[in-house]
Amino acid sequence: MRETRETGEPGMRRTESGLRALLEERAGDGAGAEPSPHLDRIIRRGRRTRATRRALSVGAALAVTATATAAVLLAGSITGTGPVRPDEPAVVARQPDSAQVETGPELPETFPVVLGAKRYSIPLLHAERFATTGVGRTVTFTPTSTDTGFKVVCGDPNAWFVLSGPVKGGELSGTAGRCGNGGGGHHDHLSAPTGWLKGPQKIQVWVFPPDAPVVEVAEELGRCLPVPASAPCDEGAAGRALFRKDVRERLLAKVSEQPGTWAVGVYDHPPAGTSATTTGPSPTDGSSETTDSSVSAGSSAGSSAGSSATSDPSVTSDLSVTSDPPATNGRP
Question: For the region Disordered, what residue ranges are annotated (predicted)?
Fold first, then answer.
């Protein structure tokens, strides 16, 4: 319950004018009486009290604001996000770089062919790309003629490769060596295997990193056959040894799968009634690209580039190798 005054009125805060009227009423002894000489003193005291209270309230508010500001500045100096001082240059936060997608080496759009005095080019119709070496891949495609070319390129020109495919008679033929030496092959009506145009065909490719111990493994397994025989086992002889299955398997075990981009392209004539087209956007790691509906995508395929290998009758049971360079009538 709230306190009451002698008059019985509820206690309440009075204004200055109301207080003055009350004091004049109570202090006077009759009509026309003068106000109490203490009234002005009381009013001035009340004003001073209220002013003091307001000053204290403002001071407290300023103190709280200053404390909060100091806390923010302190936190900023600790985290490095505070305001820059005049003597310090502003540092702009660097946004993280967007992811860079490596598409690997580019395949040429055409494959040059030289058959005696006849020279022409075949357009690229199918391509497959990969992002790891130390593995073997199979490229599946559907040829449109018996005039089919193959090209392999590597992100590192010093990488090793082996390219193998069927030839007439059911044997395998191919090329091997360093990618930078220019690798590929070509079928014509004399070398294309029986049934070449009856359905999908396959070529196989193995790619090894530049530092793969090819010469060492070839010597360990007795597969290095230099020419002449008295010559040391060099990269040329070791490259021919890559056609041996045991050499490839030993190398795969030694180097394991590791990063390294490479690509293989299949070149052939467009089907009758269509025009030559070019490749689309470069896919990555195991994906394929075709520029004609007659060419099918390969299954987990890919291939690399390299130099042509020379004939080696000793490896015919595993791979029959031809010696034609990629710009001539070479065999895959």
Answer: 262-332
